[in-house]
Amino acid sequence: MSETVIFLVDGKMSEIVGRIKDRYALLEKIESVIPGFRGYKEKEIRRESDRLVRDHVYSVLYEAKQYLRDALVPVIEAERREFYPQLNRIIAKLDRLAEQINHADYGYSGFFNAVKIKEPELDLLIEYDYNLISLASDIRNVTLNLKQLAYRKDFNVFGEKLLELESKIARLDEAVIGRERIIRGV
Q: What does the angle CA 40 – CA 185 – CA 99 come to, to the nearest 5 degrees?
């Protein structure tokens, strides 16, 4: 039986894989009786893992948006109008990306689905999903830092961090597009 490589980001990936393996203990008994069932089970585990990863990334991005909304309060109170358009644009981008990830196609297609995703593409999707998890975590950390900077009224560093955040969001957007290309076979 092959071992699965587990990536750890915020300790979530091991938790996700652990929950999935627990749910499939009975399937191992079926596997011992029905030839060919193992491949089916592995695809189902990957599909479930894909969904759980996307749910995690969505919740991390939602948290990041909330940190930015919280940062708006001291920015408005300090009347730092130069940051309003940039903050609103970033919040809108995060919202769009979060929803795009939340409603993305699954990383495994069933027998009757129009788009078939083969095993090599599934492995590549796992790499993209790891990248999505890492980037989302980085984005959340920067937005938390922005919230803290705003409440300390350190607006010089705040402006620099906004630029860093925009760069990370652009990288996340590229990763989402790359993931979609794999699923669509482009």
A: 85
What distance lies between CA 99 and its chain's CA centroid? 11
Dihedral (CA of 122, 4, 47, 51) sign: negative
* Cα(165)–Cα(143) distance, integer angstroms: 7
Q: Which two tokens stand for residue 76?
A: 């408005």
Tokens of 145: 């830092």
> What is the pTM assigned to this prediction?
0.73
Instruction: Using CB atoms within 10 Å of the CB of residue 107, give its burial: 0 to 12 exposed, 13 to 18 middle, 19+ buried.
Output: buried
Express each pLDDT in 25-60 by its tens digit. Answer: 665 666 667 776 666 666 777 677 778 888 999 999
Provide the Cα torsion 165, 170, 174, 176; round to 10°.
60
Phi, psi for residue 152 in degrees, rounded to 5 = -85, -5
CA 16 to the chain's CA centroid: 13
In angstroms, rounded to a whole number, what is the distance separating the alpha carbons of residues 27 and 99?
33
Tokens of 140: 């959340």
Q: CA–CA distance from 44 to each of 38, 110, 124 (Å)?
A: 10, 9, 16
